[in-house]
Amino acid sequence: MCPALKQFVTAEEASRGQIVKAIWDYIKAKNLQCKGRGRVIVPDKRLSSVIGEEGMEINAFTMMTYIEKHLHHRKK
After folding, report:
1. CA 39, 8, 50: angle at the middle one, nearest 5?
2. Looking at the predicted structure, is the pLDDT value of residue 75 above 70?
3. Phi, psi of 18 (to 5 degrees)
4. Measured between alpha carbons, how far is 71 from 56 in angstroms, rounded to an integer?
5. What is the CATH number for 13?
6. 30 pLDDT exceeds 90?
7. For the chain, which has fewer Cβ within 10 Å, the N-terminal or C-terminal residue?
8. Where are the alpha helices (DSSP H) in the chain?
9. In a domain, 16, yes or no
10. What is the pLDDT of residue 32?
11. Rounded Cα gap, residues 76 and 67, in angstroms
């Protein structure tokens, strides 16, 4: 698993679903969703290493595009 994703997933091997869940758990714990627009995320410094840029608004569906780039770097 790439180092950027290891910040959120503690297991050495994780499924796509487990990775997405771990990132969403982080988003919710850090209150990174826009108020009243739960599908819009504003990454902090740590999350921006995986998704977008710090402070940039990102739609939850677009988030998967960023995560996919990191998943393709996983060793098979």
Report:
1. 60
2. no
3. -65, -35
4. 22
5. 1.10.245.10
6. yes
7. C
8. 3-6, 16-29, 60-71
9. yes
10. 93
11. 17
Residue listed under structure tokens 């290493």: 49
> What's the structural domain count of the chain?
1
Using CA atoms, how far apart are residues 66 and 76, in angstroms rounded to an integer? 19
> Distance between CA atoms of 75 and 37, rounded to whole angstroms?
35
Amino acid at 36: G
Residue 25 has φ and ψ, to the nearest 5°, of -60, -40
Q: Identity (one letter) of the amino acid at 59?
A: N
> Does residue 17 lie in a domain region?
yes
Beta carbons within 8 Å of 52's beta carbon, 6+ residues apart: 43, 58, 66
Higher per-residue confidence, 55 vs 23: 23
Q: Is residue 76 part of a domain?
A: no
Alpha carbon of residue 50 to chain centroid: 6
Question: Considering the entire predicted model, what is its pTM?
Answer: 0.83
Render pLDDT for 32-74 as a digit per residue (tens, 0 to 9): 998 888 889 999 999 999 988 888 899 988 888 888 888 765 5
